């Protein structure tokens, strides 16, 4: 199975981040985990590294509800510069929202691969990695 060099978690929930990092480490399939507590920090990082594919994550786990810039705002901004990125990034929304509106909206955005309701398991992470 392929290994992933970098995965980013964009989420302000410290407990979720801690547990997800543990699950990721148990897969032994991801070398580096970058965490951003809000969408703005993540957008700024992506823009700063737009021409540096080695720094860009292969996978993003994106929460919807965060301070400063939420997941929806992140996606709006991301879609504007996505074609200029030097690497394809696979985005999964990982949220506690069970709103049918959020699910339909997420699936209508081309950059979003899937909508996952928290928590995310080690098995689900392995499935995600297998699809890349």
Automatic annotation (TrEMBL):
Keyword set includes Cell membrane: no
Protein name as annotated: Response regulator
Species of the source: Flavobacterium franklandianum
4-aspartylphosphate PTM sites in chain numbering: 63
One GO-annotated biological process of the protein: phosphorelay signal transduction system
Gene3D superfamilies: 3.40.50.2300
Keywords: Phosphoprotein
Ranges for domain Response regulatory: 6-132
Pfam families: Response_reg
